[in-house]
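In the lab's daily routine, each protein ends up as an entry in a very long ledger. A line of letters takes care of the sequence, but it says nothing directly about the fold. The three-dimensional part falls to structure tokens, numbers that each stand for a local backbone shape. The outcome of that step, for a single protein, is printed below.
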Amino acid sequence: MLLSGGLDSATVLALAVREGWRCHALTVDYGQRHRAELDAAANVARALGAVEHRVVPLDLRVFGGSALTDASIGLPTEPTSGIPVTYVPARNTIFLALALAYAEVSDADAIFTGANAVDYSGYPDCRPEFIAAFEALANLATKRAVEGAPVRIRAPIVRMTKADIVRVGRELGVDFSLTVSCYDADAQGHACGRCEACRLRREGFAAAQVPDPTRYRR
């Protein structure tokens, strides 16, 4: 289970646990400016019953090119057209490749991801086509698949709206106050309330008519 510590991946972890999966959670410390999500991921993994939680250090700041890894690039506070500056080059491809390696050594039958293509912010690696293509790649590239045990890439919320995700998470008992979605969260996990991630999250709770437990600093 790729677990970022945000609302989406927490809901997917809860869905997987409900389906009876023994979930090995994987979080990537990629040099993100919103580092509070790393603590959030640990708290979510513990609260939702992951059997293991690993953090992989892989500093993508060496490449740059994203407002999430380069503090000199300003975070947008208004919706933008096209692919936004918060896109991290090849991030989901890298994350899924790490999860694929973890799946092989842990003998996992599926990889779960919180990718979402409905309320997404223009990221090309959150689309269903990408998920399907990566699954095909995974089953060409791994020892277990060649030996007759293919791995599935599960993206159960990929076509849900943010409001749908909030509703499902609430039904599953997800404590959303543990999650951090903000791109500019402080060290304590308080959200800025202004970035695109905060806007989508806030609108999701409002549309779902669920009280927003996010801790905002303004």
